[in-house]
Amino acid sequence: MEVQVAPLRAWDDFFPGSDRFARPDFKDISKWNNRVVNNLLYYQTNYLMVAAAVVSIVGFLSPLNMLIGGTVVVLVFMGFVWVSHNKDILRRLKKQYPTTFVVVIMLSSYFLISYLGDVMVFIFGITLPLLLMFVHASLRLRNIKNKLENKIEGIGLKKTPMGIILDALEQQEDSINKLADYISKAKE
User: Fold this and answer.
1) Are 49 and 6 in contact (CB under 8 A)?
2) What is the pLDDT of residues 69-104, one digit of tens each?
3) Keywords on this record (predicted)?
């Protein structure tokens, strides 16, 4: 499978004034989850750039601890994904409560990193970029251009880095299924 990098979105689209941000509807978790997933897919290269900047700063200040922390998080994530693919109950929990699944991964990583070394590297180098992505994806309203581009790019999204991660968390399947239904209806 060839992984493609999604296009870098214009920074004024990524972070304009407060008119494009709004509090999510906490009563409708499905709608909030849809907003987060679509924003993660649409702005994934921008998020990668922001995360790379934060990781670079922390990595410059403490390179060994950043390497250890990143390795621990990746291994814990891969372990949890593997276990959830082999246990149906965990797979259903992961699909229904993706945020809880990510929080469990982060807490497990935190405890391992606190045992191995520097917790501040974990907080600033790993958790801060993830928190910034989640907050932005939760608050950023999508405009017509975002929605259209997500529909157009929908078929190839599993080949992008964020698409692969969301697929591992089983959060993208619904979007792809909806898109497939939309295309089949358009053909009729």
Assistant:
1) no
2) 888 888 888 888 888 888 887 777 777 777 777 788
3) Acetylation, Cell membrane, Cytoplasm, Cytoskeleton, Endoplasmic reticulum, Membrane, Transmembrane, Transmembrane helix
Residue 4 is classified by DSSP as -
Helix axes 88-96, 98-116, angle to 10 degrees: 110
Distance, CA of 1 to CA of 158 (rounded, Å): 10
CB-CB contact of 169 with 98 (8 Å): yes
Q: Report which of 63, 69, 59 is spatially closest to residue 113, judged by C-alpha positions.
A: 69
Q: Which two tokens stand for residue 1?
A: 């499978």
Q: What is the mean pLDDT of residues 52-72?
A: 87
Residue 28, classed as helix, strand or coil, is coil
d(CA 41, CA 155): 12
